[in-house]
Every structure is written in C-alpha cells, then in structure tokens.
Amino acid sequence: MRFKGLYLALALLLIVPFSVNAQKLIGISPFVSEECKVPPHAVKTLKHKLTQIVTQSGYGSTSNEFYLTTSVVDVNKQAIPTVPVQYEVELEVSLYLVVPAEGIIIAEYPILVKGMESNESKAYVQALNQVNPRSPKIRMFMQSCREKIVDYYNTSLPAKLKKAETFATQGDYASAVSVLAFFPDCVDGYDKVAEKMSEYYQKQIDLEAQYSIKEAEALMVKEDYAAALDILSSVNPLSTKSTEAMTLIYKIDEIAKAKKAAELQAKVEARQRALEAEQRAYERDLETMQRTQDYNLKMAKITADAQAKYAAAIETKAAEVEKSVSDKIVSLLFGDL
Predict the structure, then answer these.
(1) Which of the 8 DSSP states describes residue 336?
(2) Does 219 have pLDDT greater than 80?
C-alpha cells in the first residue's frame, strides 16, 4: 500500500504543469515600522490599510525586495474643551515604496487626514480610516509605482542575472532561484529569467536527489531499508535522478519480499527440525522402553530358572538325605540278615 501511494503522488506531481514563476503579479510587502509614532490601537488599522492598498491595486502581497511602508506626522493635535472633551488630530500619512536592500525610496505619496473622538487613540484610528485604498489618487500612485518597479527590474536585470549565475557557479542553486524569483513577466527579457530559473531549479532538485540517493545507498548497506525508503520517497519526481531513485525503491521492495520469504522459509525449516528432533526423541524413548522390557523379561526368566533349579536341588537333596537315613535305620535294626 505504501508503494501504491508513493506512485500515485509521483504521478500527480508529474502531470501538474511546472512553472517556477506562476505568480505574475508584481510583489509588494506592506510593512509598518515600530518607529511609526501612532498609538498601539492605531498600528493595526495602519497595517490593514497598507495591506488593502497593495492587494486592491492588483499587487502580490509579498516580496523580498519591494515594501510599501509609511510614516505618520502630526500636523495638528488638540483637545477641544467640550463636554465631554473631544480630541482632534490632523495627520500627514506618507506612503513610501522602498527597496531596503538597496537603501532607496522609489516613490512617495502624502495624504492628509483628520479625526475627532472622545480620546486621542480613537481619534488616530478615525483619521487613519479615512485613508481610502480605492481612491483615484492612491490608485494613480500605485500605478506609478508599478511603472517604476518595472523600470527598476529592467535596469537591474543584467546585474541580477549575473548575481544569480555567481550563486549557481558556487552550487547554491536555491539562492540563484531566489534572486530571480520575483521578476514579473512584464519585464523585458523575462524569457531569459524564466529560462535561468528553470535551469537552476532543475540543478537544485538534481543535486538534492543525488545527495538523497547516496544517503539511501549507505543506509541500504547497513540494511536499514525503512530509512532508505523514506529518503528516496522525498526525491522530486521532476529530477533527472528520479528514475535512479525509483530503481532503488524497486530494489528495496524486492529485498523486502526476499527477506520476508527467507524468514518464512527459516521458520518452516526450524519447525521441521523441531519435529524431526521430537520424532528422534520418541523413537529413542520407544527403544529404551523395549530394551527395558526385554531386560526385565530376561531377568524374570533367569530368576524363574534359578528358582526351579534351586527347588529341584532341594528336592533331590531331601531325597538323598531321606534315603541315607533310611539306609542307616535299616542297617541298624536289621543288620546283616
């Protein structure tokens, strides 16, 4: 059953179309710094707004390069002496598209918002809730971000390809793929990116498969077939080494069957030897009993014969004694007549 499940999983993986860059959206990660000076209750609202701006503008919500972050500046903050007291805040919320790894700001957009509530924290939340992710101005800002990101990718493409190739030369194919993974397909020269990613991915899974096969072979030498099978089962079916891994899986299967048959045969032979030993012991017991019976019969005969001879001897002796006594009495009484 284990092998059937394994083969089914491999088949399902093989029929799924392979793409190392199925996500076509440009990725931007929303991020609120701990240095952003807003009350704790307002931080959650701010994070939610940034996430909405990213996703509702048609971007992927994750990236390892581009981040949409913000700063909040108090333009005006006052307590209005009403009953009860009301707190009014006017904030400048600036949106920034940044590349932290490069230390650059790609785009910036300020938004003025106001809020009034019974306490300062609620006033901040009300003000931040006025940031509308669907507003035309925010959409225009995000569209400009898209254009600038595409320009950034087009400009950085040669350097990124070179960096990825450096990682690949060192055998670090995972890092090579990571360098290129977030290039959107709208970038000029994306075909080259996709080709290189596919190449590096293939080399990565082949390298992992090779390590797994070597480790499995070492375990097979130690006859730890269960552990070897677990390792071989993890080999990616898209690897060029998958056929070799499957060959070893079949081999382990045959070894397991042969081992099971050998164990069964050993049990049969052991049982046969036990039965033969029991038969020999039974025959020895019968032979011993027969010898004992023959001996007892022989001794009984000898004893009977001895007793008969003894009785005859006693009888003869008695007859002789009687005759001798008779002869003496006759001689004494009658003498020579």
Answers:
(1) -
(2) yes
d(CA 175, CA 314): 122
Residue 238's Cβ-count burial label (10 Å; 0-12, 13-18, 19+) is: middle
Q: What secondary structure letter does DSSP report for 27?
A: B
Long-range contacts of 219-226 (CB under 8 A, 24+ apart): 220/248, 220/251, 220/252, 225/252, 225/255, 225/256
**pTM greater than the 0.70 cutoff:** no
Q: Is 97 left (phi over 0), alpha (psi -120 to 50) or beta?
A: beta
Residue type, 336: D
Helix (H, G, I), strand (E, B) or coil at 39: coil
Q: List the structure tokens of 240.
A: 């060029």
Q: What would the mean pLDDT of 207-229 be, rounded to a whole number?
A: 91
- What totals of helices (H) and strands (E) does the chain contain, helices first? 8, 4
Residue ranges of domains in the chain: 29-134
